[in-house]
Design a protein that fits this description.
mainly alpha, 0% strand
Length: 137
């Protein structure tokens, strides 16, 4: 993060901005795990520009999430049904154990509240609560 940029303040400002634009198509696509077009990215940048965010703030927001789209989704979360659908290819046609179902539900809850997940997160609490080795367990 650049000096003088508080990530929590950026998230709080972004949440306030995004609430005003929750019906915009680009926001809807992120919430429901749909692909963004170049026009959608421009629209997202426009939301932040109209809310008088500095380029330093926008760049700081993009970095940890690897892009503005993922940053926005980390703020607004993902629809729970969309998160389930994203994992359905993995679970479909398989008989999962109770722990595997619980692990999958933890992933869905994480996606619903935080919008995306880093692989390393799967090796931390609460994911290691079911099996100490996390994903491999």
């Amino acid at each position: 993060m650049p000096t003088g940029v508080d990530p929590e303040k950026i998230r709080d400002k972004a949440l306030n901005s995004l609430r005003k634009h929750e019906n915009d198509l680009a926001i809807h696509k992120l919430k429901f795990n749909e692909s963004l077009t170049d026009e959608d990215i421009v629209a997202l940048e426009g939301i932040f520009a109209t809310e008088e965010r500095t380029s330093e703030e926008i760049e700081a927001a993009k970095k940890p999430a690897n892009g503005l789209g993922l940053f926005v989704r980390s703020v607004i979360g993902m629809d729970q049904e969309a998160a389930k659908a994203a994992l359905s290819g993995f679970t479909q046609g398989k008989t999962l154990t109770a722990n595997q179902i619980e692990f999958t539900n933890l992933i869905i809850n994480h996606l619903s509240s935080r919008g995306w997940i880093e692989v390393g997160t799967l090796y931390q609490s609460p994911f290691t609560g079911l099996r100490p080795r996390g994903l491999e367990g």
